[in-house]
Design goal:
The structure holds two protein chains of two kinds.
Chain A: H1 2-19, H2 22-48, H3 53-77, H4 90-111
Helix pairs in contact in A: 2-3, 3-4
Chain B: H1 6-25, H2 37-52, H3 54-58, E1 61-62, E2 71-72, H4 80-94, H5 101-127, H6 130-142, H7 144-147, H8 157-178, H9 181-197, H10 201-217, H11 223-240, H12 257-278, H13 281-309, H14 318-321, H15 323-327, H16 336-343, H17 346-359, H18 363-381, H19 386-409, H20 427-454, E3 463-466, E4 472-475, H21 477-488, E5 494-496, H22 502-509, E6 512-513, H23 522-533, H24 536-545, E7 550-554, H25 565-579, H26 604-607, H27 610-616, E8 632-633, E9 638-639, E10 650-655, E11 661-666
Parallel strand pairs in B: 5-6, 5-7
Antiparallel strand pairs in B: 1-2, 3-4, 7-11, 8-9, 10-11
The chains are: A mainly alpha, B mainly alpha.
Protein name (chain A): Dolichyl-diphosphooligosaccharide--protein glycosyltransferase subunit DAD1
Organism (chain A): Neogobius melanostomus
Subunit structure (chain A): Component of the oligosaccharyltransferase (OST) complex.
Chain lengths: ~110, ~675
C-alpha cells in the first residue's frame, strides 16, 4: 500500500514538473511559502497561548486569505481554464488580486490591535 | 450587454418617487417626530455620535440607562445605522447644506428603501430578465410588509439592513456568475455593511454556504463557485469581526459553524478535483483512501478538542425558556391574516414564480429557491421575520408575472421558434388573461396604499381616535407626560417603569431609567416586575434599594386603551416569578376559578399590589358616563374592586389629560420612626 502511495506521489511530482507552465510554478512556490508561514503561526499559538487573540486571528487569517487569493489567481490565469472565465482576462485577474489584497491588509492592520 | 436603457431608468425613478411620495405624504398628518420605542434609542445614540465624534461613540458608557448598572453602548449595539446617519449629516454639513440630525434620521428610511428597490431590480435582472427586475422593484416599492419598516420617521436597523441584504445577495449572484474576485470582494464589503447594520446577518452567512453545499450536491461544482465562496468566506470573516458587538462570535458560536464547515469541504473538494484531472483512476483511488483516513482523523481530534474546551454550545430555542422573549408580541407565530395583509396577491403568485425558477434551473436560481424556502419557514415562526420574506416574495412574483405577460403579450411571429398554426393563442384569450393580470395588479396597488395610510403611518407615541361625527381626536398624553418629567423633575432623577417605555423616557424626558427595551439583564427586569407586583411596603423596600425617585405607569381605563400596564401585568408577574419564585406566584393573582379580574371578585393579592394601586388611585371617584358607575374601567369592562385606595409611600405627581400616563413620586423615609415608643 505504502509503496503504491509513494509511487503515485513520485509520478505526480514528475508530471507536475514537466507539464505546468512556469508562471503557475511561481504562484505555486508562493503558495507553499504562505502555507509554511501559516503553519508556523499556528504552531506558535499552540505553544505560547492565544493572548492576544485578535492579533493571532488577524495574522492567521491574513495567511489563509493570501493563500486563497493566490489560489484564485492561479485558477484564473491557467490557460486550461479559459472556457470558465470568459470575462476575466489574466490581466484583470491580477488587478483583482491586488485589489483584494489591499482590502485584506487594511482590515488585518485594523484588527491586529 | 445589459445596459440601462432610458426607459428602464425612468421606470426605476418612477418607483422610487412613488415610494417617497406615499411615505412623505403621511408626514403631513403628524409633525416630524421619530416614532416608536426602539427608535428613540437609535436617535439618541446618533445624536451622541454627531455631538461627540466617532471614537466617543464607540467607547460610550451610558450611565443614564439601567441604573445602577449602566450600559456599554459601544459594545452592545450595531453601529451601522448611527454611522450611516452621522456620515450623511457630516457630508451634507460639509457642503454647507445645514440639516439637523433629526431630519436626517426621519428621512433616512425612505431614501434607503428607494435603494432597496434598485438593488432588488439588479438582483432580479441577474436571476431572470430586465422586465421581471422592473416588476420586482415596483412591487417592493409599495408592498406593506416592507413599508412598515421604511416609513419616514421609522429609524430602525431594518430600514438599512434590507437594502444591505438585497445588495449583498446581488453581488453574490454576480460573483457566482462571473467567477471574478472583484465581485466577491464587493460582496464581502456589502456583507460587512450588513453585519454592522443588523443581527439578521446570520441569515446571509448561513444561506450562502447552504447554496454552495446544495450546488456541490447537485454536481454543479465549478471553479467560479470555488473562487466566489472562498474569497467571500475568508475576507467576510475577518471583516465581520471588526464590529465590536460581533467580536469573536464568527469562530465560536454554532450559528457560524456551517459556513466554516462548507469552506473546509469546498477546499478539500476542489483539491480532489485538481488531483483527479492529473492522475489516472487507479492512482487517484489510492490517494483518495489515504486522504479520507487523514481527514477522518483530523475531524475526530478536532471534535474531541472542541467538546473538551466547551467552545461550541448549541443554542436551544430561547423562546420556550425565557419569558421575556416569549412576551414580545412580535415574536408570536404568524397568522394567515398577516401574510395576506402584508403581501396581498403576491403570496399567491410567489409559488408560481418559484416553480418557474426550479423548472429552468441554473446556479443562481438554486440560490433564490433556497432563499425562498428558508424565508417562508422563518416567516411562519415569528411575525417579525415577515420582513425577510417580503423581498423574495416580490422577486418571485415578479418572475411569475413576467412569464405570464411574456407568454400572452409577446408577438408569436417574432419569436425564435414561432409555434405551429393550431397551437397559437387566439387574440381573445390573450386579451382576457392580460386584463385579469392588470386588474390583479391594480387591486394590489390599491390595497398597499390603503394599508400604508391606515395601519403603518401613525406614530405610536401619538394616538388618534375618531369621534361620532368622524372627526379625528388626537391624544398626545405620552408627549405631555414626558415633557412634564423633563421640565419638572431634577436632572438626575431616576424613573422606574416597565421596560417598554425605557427608550422613550430616556429620549424624550431625558431622565435616568432602570430598565429599557434592550432587555439585556433579565434579573434587573425581574426586580422591577417584583416591585410592581408586590404590596406597597415590600415594593418600597425594593424602590429604596434602587434609589428610585419616580414611578411611571400607563393606564388605559379612561379611554379604553388596551396596551396599558394592567394588560401587561401578567407578564410582569411571570418574569418576576422566574427570578423570585418564593415571593411571587402567578396563581395568587387569579381568582379561585382561575380568572384575572380587577373587580370585587378579583384576588386580594392583585387588589393590593402596587401596580393596581397606582393605576386606580382616585379612579373610584371618576364617573366617565352617566350610564356606568364611578370607577368603571373601559378597557377591562369592569367596575374596579378596590375604590378607596390610600398610598403610604408614594404620592401622585402627575396624571396626563386622559389619564394615560400616571407618574408617582417616591416619598423619602419618615423623619421619626412612628412605631418606636418613648
Amino acid at each position: 500500500m505504502s509503496n503504491s502511495v509513494i509511487s503515485v506521489i513520485s509520478r505526480f511530482l514528475e508530471e507536475y514538473t514537466t507539464s505546468t507552465p512556469n508562471k503557475l510554478k511561481v504562484v505555486d512556490a508562493y503558495l507553499l511559502y504562505i502555507l509554511l508561514t501559516g503553519a508556523l503561526q499556528f504552531l506558535y499559538c499552540l505553544l505560547v497561548g492565544t493572548f492576544p487573540f485578535n492579533s493571532f486571528l488577524s495574522g492567521f487569517i491574513s495567511c489563509v486569505g493570501s493563500f486563497i487569493l493566490a489560489v484564485c489567481l492561479r485558477i484564473q490565469i491557467n490557460p486550461q481554464n479559459k472556457s470558465d472565465f470568459l470575462s476575466v482576462s489574466p490581466e484583470r485577474a491580477f488587478a483583482d488580486f491586488l485589489f483584494a489584497h489591499t482590502v485584506l491588509h487594511l482590515v488585518v492592520m485594523n484588527f491586529i490591535g | 450587454l445589459t445596459k440601462f436603457g432610458t426607459e428602464e431608468k425612468k421606470m426605476l425613478k418612477l418607483s422610487w418617487s412613488i415610494k417617497l411620495n406615499i411615505q412623505v405624504l403621511l408626514l403631513q398628518f403628524y409633525s416630524k417626530i421619530v416614532f416608536c420605542f426602539p427608535f428613540r434609542f437609535n436617535y439618541r445614540s446618533t445624536h451622541h455620535l454627531t455631538s461627540n465624534g466617532f471614537y466617543e461613540f464607540l467607547n460610550w458608557f451610558d450611565e443614564r440607562a439601567w441604573y445602577p448598572l449602566g450600559r456599554i453602548v459601544g459594545g452592545t449595539v450595531y453601529p451601522g445605522l448611527m454611522v450611516t446617519a452621522g456620515l450623511i449629516h457630516y457630508v451634507l454639513n460639509l457642503l454647507h447644506i445645514t440639516v439637523h440630525i433629526r431630519d436626517v434620521c426621519v428621512f433616512l428610511a425612505p431614501v434607503f428603501s428607494g435603494l432597496t428597490s434598485i438593488s432588488t431590480f439588479l438582483l432580479t435582472r441577474e436571476l431572470w430578465n430586465q422586465g421581471a427586475g422592473l416588476l420586482a422593484a415596483c412591487f417592493i416599492a409599495i408592498v406593506p410588509g416592507y413599508i412598515s419598516r421604511s416609513v419616514a420617521g421609522s429609524f430602525d436597523n431594518e430600514g438599512i439592513a434590507i437594502f444591505a441584504l438585497q445588495f449583498t445577495y446581488y453581488l453574490w449572484v454576480k460573483s457566482v456568475k462571473t467567477g471574478s474576485v472583484f465581485w466577491a470582494i464587493g460582496c464581502c464589503l456589502s456583507y460587512f455593511y450588513m453585519v454592522s447594520a443588523w443581527g439578521g446577518y446570520v441569515f446571509i452567512i448561513n444561506l450562502i454556504p447552504l447554496h454552495v453545499f446544495v450546488l456541490l450536491l447537485m454536481q454543479r461544482f465549478s471553479r467560479r463557485v470555488y473562487i466566489a465562496y472562498s474569497t467571500f468566506y475568508i475576507i467576510g470573516l475577518v471583516l465581520s469581526m471588526q464590529i465590536p458587538f460581533v467580536g469573536f462570535q464568527p469562530i465560536r458560536t454554532s450559528e457560524h459553524m456551517a459556513a466554516a464547515g462548507v469552506f473546509v469541504l469546498l477546499q478539500v473538494y476542489a483539491f480532489l478535483q485538481y488531483l483527479k484531472d492529473r492522475l489516472t483512476r487507479q492512482e487517484f483511488q489510492t490517494l483518495f483512501f489515504l486522504g479520507v483516513a487523514l481527514a477522518a482523523g483530523v475531524v475526530f481530534l478536532s471534535v474531541i478538542y472542541l467538546t473538551y474546551t466547551g467552545t461550541n454550545k448549541l443554542k436551544c430555542y430561547a423562546k420556550i425558556h425565557i419569558p421575556i422573549i416569549a412576551s414580545v408580541s412580535e415574536h408570536q407565530p404568524t397568522t394567515w391574516v398577516s401574510f395576506f395583509f402584508d403581501l396581498h396577491i403576491l403570496v399567491c403568485t410567489f409559488p408560481a414564480g418559484l416553480w418557474f425558477c426550479i423548472k429552468n434551473i441554473n446556479d443562481e436560481r438554486v440560490f433564490v429557491a433556497l432563499y425562498a424556502i428558508s424565508a417562508v419557514y422563518f416567516a411562519g415562526v415569528m411575525v417579525r421575520l415577515m420582513l425577510t420574506l417580503t423581498p423574495v416574495v416580490c422577486m418571485l412574483s415578479a418572475v411569475a408575472f413576467s412569464c405570464v405577460f411574456e407568454h400572452y403579450l409577446g408577438d408569436d411571429m417574432k419569436r425564435q421558434s414561432p409555434p405551429a398554426e393550431d397551437s397559437r393563442l387566439g387574440p381573445n384569450i390573450k386579451s382576457i388573461v392580460t386584463m385579469l393580470m392588470l386588474m390583479l395588479l391594480m387591486m394590489f396597488a390599491v390595497h398597499c396604499t390603503w394599508v400604508t395610510s391606515n395601519a403603518y403611518s401613525s406614530p405610536s407615541v401619538v394616538l388618534a381616535s375618531y369621534n361620532h361625527d368622524g372627526s379625528r381626536n388626537i391624544l398626545d398624553d405620552f408627549r405631555e407626560a414626558y415633557y412634564w418629567l423633563r421640565q419638572n423633575t431634577d436632572e438626575h432623577a431616576r424613573v422606574m417603569s416597565w421596560w417598554d417605555y425605557g427608550y422613550q423616557i430616556a429620549g424624550m424626558a431625558n431622565r435616568t431609567t432602570l430598565v429599557d427595551n434592550n432587555t439585556w439583564n433579565n434579573s434587573h427586569i425581574a426586580l422591577v416586575g417584583k416591585a410592581m407586583s408586590s404590596n406597597e411596603t415590600a415594593a418600597y423596600e425594593i424602590m429604596r434599594s434602587l434609589d428610585v425617585d419616580y414611578v411611571l405607569i400607563i393606564f388605559g381605563g379612561v379611554i379604553g386603551y388596551s396596551g396599558d400596564d394592567i394588560n401587561k401585568f401578567l407578564w410582569m408577574v411571570r418574569i418576576a416569578e422566574g427570578e423570585h419564585p418564593r415571593d411571587i406566584r402567578e396563581s395568587d393573582y387569579f381568582t379561585p376559578q382561575g380568572e384575572f379580574r380587577v373587580d370585587k371578585a378579583g384576588s386580594p393579592t392583585l387588589l393590593n399590589c402596587l401596580m393596581y394601586k397606582m393605576s386606580y388611585y382616585r379612579f373610584g371617584e371618576m364617573q366617565l358616563d352617566f350610564r356606568t358607575p364611578p370607577g368603571f374601567d373601559r378597557t377591562r369592562n369592569a367596575e374596579i374592586g378596590n375604590k378607596d385606595i390610600k398610598l403610604k409611600h408614594l404620592e401622585e405627581a402627575f396624571t396626563s389629560e386622559h389619564w394615560l400616563v400616571r407618574i408617582y413620586k417616591v416619598k423619602k423615609l419618615e423623619n421619626r420612626d412612628r412605631t418606636s415608643s418613648l
